[in-house]
Structures are given as C-alpha cells and as structure tokens.
Amino acid sequence: MTELAAGEQVRLEKVEFDGQSSGTAPLTWGQRAIWSAIGRTRPGDWYFNFCRTLMLPRRYDLPQVLAAIRFVLERHESLRTRLTGTDGEPLQSAAAAGVLEVEVLEVAAGDREAGARVAERFAARGFDYEREWPVRIAVLTKGGVPAELVMAFCHLAADYEGTGYLLRDIRAALAGRTADLPPAPRPSELALHQESAEGRRFAEAAAAHWERAYRLIPVSMFPAGEYVPAEPRYQRLELISPALAVAVPAVAGRLAVSTSTVLLAAAGAVLRGRTGHDTVAMLAISGNRVAPRTREIVSTLSLEALVVLPFEGVTGFEEAVRATGRAAMAGYRFGHYDERDRDRVVAAESARRGEPVHPYCCVNDLRGAGQGAAVGRGPAGVHPAALLDGTRLLELSPLEQLSCRFCLHFDDAPGALSIRLTADTGCLPLPAMARFLRETERLLVAAHDGEVSLAGFGVHGPEDPR
C-alpha cells in the first residue's frame, strides 16, 4: 500500500449531507453479480475497487470543492448506500443523511504523481460493505488551492461508466449549473423494476439467450492445472503501446466498425491460436445504459455479456472482425440479466455435459467510458510500426485469488493504448501472458495496412513449455 510521501500533510474535512431519499431494497442485478464476484475473490476483493481523478481549475477554493462533493453525495443515492444482512442475501440500504470524511492533502507544486499515489492507497484497501460509505475522496491542494480531486469507489456503488456522470455533476456544481441536470435515477427504484413483471420478462429472454449460447461454447477456454502455478498464482501485466493508439482507429475506420470490435476480434483471434478452440467464448463487460431509467445512473450496471466468436474456417483478420461484430451485438443485447437465472442455466448445461462449463475468459473495454475520460491518441501521420520501440511491458501487483482465469482490460494511456492482462498462471504462465500481449499488438499493427492471415498468431512458444 502506498504511504504518504515525505512532507505531505493530511487533514480531514467532514462533509455533512442530507440526500432525503432513504430505505432498503433488494440488490440490483449488477450489484448481485459484483457481490458474488467479491465473495469468490476475498481477501483480494480490493481488486474490484477503481478510481477516478479530476483536475481542478485553480479558480475554486476548498469550500466550493467541498460543496460540490456534498451536492453529488446528496444527488446520487448509491454514494449513500451500504449493505445490510451480508451473512445471507444482502439488501442495499440508503441513508438520507450522514457525514463523509474527505482527505485534504497539501502536495508540492511540481508533484505530478501525488494523485496516482493517493488513488493507489485508496484502492488497495477493501471496503467495509456494511459500515463504510462506498466512496473515498481526497482533495489535493498546492499552495492551499485545490488542484486535483481523487475518488475511489466500491464497485457495489458504481461502475466506471457511471462515474463519468458523477464527474460531470461535480463540474456542473463547481460552475453553478446544476439546474440543467436531469433527475438522477435511483438504484433502489431500478431494483424494484427488475423484480417487476416487466423486469422478469426481460430476464427470461436473457436466460434463453444464455441457454442457447452455452450449448455452443467449449467447456472452458483454459483447462485447469495445465501448468505449475506461480506464487502468487494470479499475475498481472500491462502493455502500453503508442503503436496501437494509431493502428486500432485506422483499422476500425477502414473496416467501418468500432474500435472495440477490432480489439475484441484481435484478442479472440490470438486466443484461438493459443487455445486451439475455433469457437472462442469471452465474457465481455456490457455497460447496459440504454433504457431511460438507466441512461445516467451512478450505480453498477456492468455485467458480463457472453460473446461467442465463431472462428471455424476463418483465415483472415478482416473476416474475424466481421464475425466478431455480429457476435458482439447478439451478446450485448442480452448483457442485462439476473445472475440467478444465469447460474441456473450454467448448472443445467454443466449437468448435461457431466462437467463444469464456464469460459473463465473475460474482457473489459474501459476506453472513453463515461464523461470526461481522456482518450489515448497516437501521433498523426506516423506508421504504427515506427512506434513499436516505444511499447512498454509492465508487471503489476499480483493477486492471491480471482474468480476468472484470463481477464483482459483495454484502457486509455497518454498517447497510447493500454492492454492489461490478469491470468491464472496454472493456465497461462507469465511468459505466455507476455507473448499474448505482444502477439495481439503485432496482429493489429500488421492489420493497419490491409488483410492479415491469422496463421501462426497465438501459437505456443518455446518460452512456455508444458
């Protein structure tokens, strides 16, 4: 855990809020899914925490910033919500009023890393789901003037896209433009809708999709126990590539598809070469902000959409991209569901095959999620191959426990595109993790200039003998 740097001083400011709405309700589908994942990941459940930062114009003083924080605490019910009954089926419990202690941290004028240090310190500690507010906030000051806002979120309260609307609301509060904001949807009301007859009809349609799709997929993308695992078992790598910031938008523009489709197709193609599965099953995180009641909600709506990539007979990357686009649309259509229904479908298919069926392979595209996200862009007019020397491959903090075997995250980085991979080294050794990231980059850079044969991508290398 990151500690305070030398000379940094912290004091606590109490922000009192009165949001008026209160009461208990069932968990939403998104909350129930995250709560299940938390239970499978403890004590490493800090893995699900995430942070957002906001650079502050130097024209606002500390009372104005604290007033903006009070505004969003009162406006967004999820920030005032804790769990009750965590020993069984928990409920979400929103408090009308309370107090949040906000850190105020004075940092050196030239310190550009202070926000990252605070974010790491906040995110590295799990939340107390019954007793702690689900957000940690710090105001970084330079010369006594607020310069940066750092917020760490419990994933039960929000997802990355939803916190984009929270950043928007903070900016509006600072500028005195809150009268134009639409009413904030409430997670407790969404939970009640999901339990209604209309909600159940949609849930049943989603369950039927999962039942059809699960009949098509391999038992798992990665067999368990194939390698001797490292210690800690779950290793994490990050590839930061300026070349991909140029190549991916160019390929997407040439093929008239989204950059998400291009990245998903590349990951799927390399996975196919690695695993030998012509049907690639990936659990892609779906934002689920389509209906008016969910469009701007600050809550956790993200769920795993089952995307089944039919790559049998596919020889070129452009064909893989087209197949991925069709499969992703089908998966995302039913990416909003009651996890209890999915569990029932998975249990039934596992019983039919006589062994547990689960992809254990997920992907999350965080690039540009929500409002105010910084988009990584490469230099214009430069061929991506000329930027490959600038690629960095970093080792991140490992995990003792995780409920998946292969987790991929796409994200923005300054002038680059980031791909983070967390994997069970009993299924994918650390050298093979690095090879996967490099192969994905190589495929996308090659696709910049036209069609690319998929032959050879993702195959086992000498660095990871069985």
TrEMBL record:
Q: Which residues form the signal peptide?
A: none
Which GO biological process categories is it annotated with? amino acid activation for nonribosomal peptide biosynthetic process; lipid biosynthetic process; secondary metabolite biosynthetic process
List GO terms (cellular component aspect).
cytoplasm
Q: Name one Pfam family in it.
A: Condensation
Q: Name one GO molecular function term.
A: catalytic activity
Classify the source by domain of life.
Bacteria
Q: What is this protein called?
A: Condensation domain-containing protein
Species in which this protein is naturally found: Kitasatospora indigofera
